[in-house]
Amino acid sequence: MNRFFVVLVLAVFILGCEGKQGPVGPSGSMGSSGANTFDIYFQNGALPTSAYSGELDTWLSGASGSPQNATPYLEVNSGAAIANYARTILKFDVSNLPTNTTIVSAQVWLKLEAATSVGSSPITIGLHDFASDTFSGCHWTSNATWLGTPGVGWNSCTGDSSAGQEGYINPTTISTVVLTSAVNGTSSFYKWNLDPAIVQSWLTSATNNNGLILKSEGEFGETASTVGFYPYNDATAANHPILIVSYY
Known about the structure:
Layout: H1 3-17, E1 38-42, E2 55-61, E3 74-78, E4 86-92, E5 103-111, E6 123-129, E7 148-149, E8 152-153, H2 154-158, E9 175-179, E10 189-194, H3 196-204, E11 212-216, E12 225-229, E13 242-247
Antiparallel strand pairs: 1-13, 2-4, 3-12, 4-11, 5-10, 5-13, 6-9, 6-11, 7-8
C-alpha cells in the first residue's frame, strides 16, 4: 500500500475521533466559563448592560428604627450590644436568565469602603439568605430597618419578636469572609460563594427572591468593628455590588 495513503488515512482517523468543539460562550462584559457554561454579571448601571438596575440594598442598624439607606455606605458591624450591630441586606433581579436555565455556581462581590474600621480582632462576615418560612407579603424595600420593612415588622413576617430579630435570617451560613485590621483604609472587592440552588429558586418564582443578608458571625461577642461596603446607588457604577452566575 502506498505509504502516503496510509499516513493520510491515519491522520483523518485521528482528527475525526477528536469530535467537534462545543459552542463558544459569550464574550465581552459577560465573560465566558467554557464551551458549555456561560457567565452573566449583574451590576447596576454596568452589567449585563448599563440599563440594568435590578440590584437593591440597604443596611439595618440595631441602634435605630430609622432607614439607613441615605448614608454613604452599607455597614456590617459588631460590638458589645445590639446597639452596636448592623447587617446588610441585598437582592438581585435575575429575570434576564431563561427560566429553564440550570445554575452551576454563583458569587456575590462587594467592594470595601475605605472608612472601614476593623478592631483588634478579625471580623467574620457571613452570607445568609432569608428564612424559608418568611410569610408572603414581606418583601423588603430600601426603607427597611432593624425592626422590619415599612408597614410590616420582621416579627409579622417570621413570628420572631425577639430583640435580635433573628427569625428572618436562615441560620445556615452559606459562606464567609474574614477581615482583619489590615484592610482598614483600603478598598477592594471581596467575594462570597452563593449556593446555586438559591439562585435557581429565584428563577422558579420571583416571590422566592427575598434577597441575602450579610452579618457578623460573632456579632454578640466579636471586638467592635465597622465594615463599610459601597451600595447600589453609589455615584460610580464600578463600585456597585456584583452577582456572577454561571449557568447552562
